[in-house]
Amino acid sequence: MKVSEPGDKGLQERISPSAWKTLVILSLIATMVMYAETMLIPAIPDLIKDFHISYGMSSWILTAYLIAGAIMTPISGKLSDIYGRKKMLLIVMGIYAIGVSLGGFATDIYQMLAIRIIQGIGMSMFPIAFAIIRELFPRSKIAIGQGVITSMFAAGAVIGLVAGGHLIQNFGWNATFFSIIPVAIALLVIIARFIHVDESHLLANTGQGKTNAKNKIDVQGAITLTVSISAFLMALTMVENGDGANAFSVIGLAIIGIVYMVLFAIIEKRSNSPLVSMKVLANKIILPSNILIMIVGLSMFMVFQTIPVLVRSPSPLGFGEDPLMTSNVQLPFALVLLIFGPTSGFIIAKLGSTKPIIVGSIISTIGFADLYLNHSTELLVSINLAILSTGLSLTNVGAMNVIMLSTPKQDIGVSLGMSTLIRIVGASIGPAMAAMYMQTHKTSLPGVAGAFPTADSYNLIFLTATLISCVSIGLALVLRRQLGKAPVTN
Fold this sequence. Notes:
By secondary structure, the protein is mostly helical. It is 76% helix and 2% strand. It is globular.
């Protein structure tokens, strides 16, 4: 028997009014979080200047947030399986609200990184949100629910880029954080009042209050994973200097990363309650889907780190524009996500996941290749970002849909947490890799203070992204073959 795609059964199943209401609330959360992230993107050059940091160090403004999210997403997913989706959603949302409330008060890079870590913990709410959608929506309509949430991420990006550009230009980057505080508080109240999830299964899962080894949190796994990811990313950051001592440090950090990654795999294999289920991860359908999602995360955040620097660097090394123009250049990327988020969901609901994933991977590769060849004007950059966004949206929604349909219901929290972790790992590598190229290929201009990335840095960034995107095409073809062989999971 084969895995049944949404298109196999048609669209005859109905979505309840309660499910739609919950979807709207979860979509508002997605809008707020993406608004919070994208509004800060045009300010990256300002933060580099105000905090007196390098391009390599600036990548940690995104990376610290992402590492915290990477570690906490599987933990939150596991806790939601044990204690309930709504309870954990409220707790994590509360942590996020604290983080964004503190953001505008940061006075140096270390305070900012600590605050970003708190915000990253809050990002772990999304595997919980997708798990709620899986429980409330009919199997044939899951892609629609997921597509709507994805589109609201894009809506948040649109609002964030437009509002962020204006706020930064007129009031400074601090104002971007202050603008989120009332929204976060309002959403906490709305979640508590209006989201209702059937969690009668929790009593059985928790052994009626008795200690259950499978319900313990894998602390050792979390620590080893944190050390491994941090070591690899610190190595990328330190590549910015070319002296021998730094090369020795980079090698040392890389070895630490490898050792702790091996330890993490051993711990997870032996754990009764792993952060990452090796059995689920090794599934021939779920594994390529997760790698595709990682590539999507890497691609998106590489763009977020690179484009603001390109647009705001002085001519001829960049376009010499202000924060508002930085937002406008990236706006087509967000607008296309807004259109293709729900559209991808309906396409997948009718046609299945594999064709859109293949087409999306090809389009993403074309977008990065053309960005590599043509990024000499703001218009060319905007057009290629729109092409790239189309492909990433199709690939992401399709791959997530395959994972949700292929994972047994009892493992869905852990599986989605694991998938989000893998996506965030990719997303944390993206800005670090871009910053490494910008830091190692920079020069100064007569009469202009500071040093700025050269054309070679942008060429290397976009070429690297193109080659990585080529890998996604091969993975999409592998996934199509595996889907044709796989049994149904329920």
